[in-house]
């Protein structure tokens, strides 16, 4: 019952309570981002949603304008503390995952949940094998099991494995544990970046990316 009804109700209630704070913080950060390099504060990223439907995920921009799209060998997005593409304020914003705040709007629209598998790029769908497509049976989350416990310290395929574990065991208690663990992980600032060697995305030359 929780995963099919109460989880969505809880998403809406918590998101509505958080919305005023999210809007204020996002507005302040938008001004900082704009004065940093004069670019648009927001970034709209295409991601895979429930049932494989592509949606635009809202983020605050943390990268400089017109930067190349770099990917890890497994196809996931590359991020590093010394990534030359990051703006000066972008490094700080990413450290505390503040760039994810606008996704509260995605939750209210029904495209995301507060807790769930982190959404993949549409181009990654073709790399799913076996039961990995099961992660598309639920709404993706602002945070999730992998995000809370490992952040960026494990590979994309390992994250999918934990996503499937979450989907098979989702409960109110698990969601509350993930939310609390996420808050703790953000303040500890651990596993923020991955260490894989990046490669240029073969299908995208330059992007304005968050």
TrEMBL record:
Transmembrane segments annotated in the record for this chain: 12-35
Coiled coil: none
Pfam family membership, one: Bac_transf
Keyword annotations of the record: Membrane, Transferase, Transmembrane, Transmembrane helix
GO molecular function: phosphotransferase activity, for other substituted phosphate groups
Domain Bacterial sugar transferase: 7-187
Entry superkingdom: Bacteria
Family recorded in the similarity comment: Belongs to the bacterial sugar transferase family.
Name under which the protein is recorded: Sugar transferase
Biological source species: Congzhengia minquanensis
Upper classification of the organism: Bacteria, Bacillati, Bacillota, Clostridia, Eubacteriales
């Amino acid at each position: 019952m929780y995963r099919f009804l109460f989880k969505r109700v809880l998403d809406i209630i918590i998101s509505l309570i958080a919305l005023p704070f999210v809007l204020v913080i996002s507005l302040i950060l938008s001004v900082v981002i704009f004065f940093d390099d004069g670019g648009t504060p927001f970034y709209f990223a295409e991601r895979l949603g429930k049932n494989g439907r592509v949606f635009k995920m809202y983020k605050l921009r943390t990268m400089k304008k017109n930067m190349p799209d770099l990917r890890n060998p497994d196809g996931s997005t590359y991020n590093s503390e010394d990534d030359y593409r990051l703006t000066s304020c972008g490094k700080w914003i990413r450290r505390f995952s503040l760039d994810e705040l606008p996704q509260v709007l995605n939750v209210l629209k029904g495209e995301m949940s507060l807790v769930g598998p982190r959404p993949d790029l549409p181009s990654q769908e073709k790399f799913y094998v076996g039961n990995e497509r099961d992660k598309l049976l639920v709404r993706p989350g602002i945070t999730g099991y992998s995000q809370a416990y490992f952040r960026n310290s494990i590979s994309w395929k390992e994250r999918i494995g934990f996503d499937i574990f979450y989907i098979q065991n989702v409960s109110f208690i698990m969601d509350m544990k993930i939310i609390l663990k996420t808050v703790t992980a953000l303040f500890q600032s651990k596993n923020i970046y991955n260490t894989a060697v990046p490669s240029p995305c073969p299908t995208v030359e330059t992007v304005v990316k968050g």
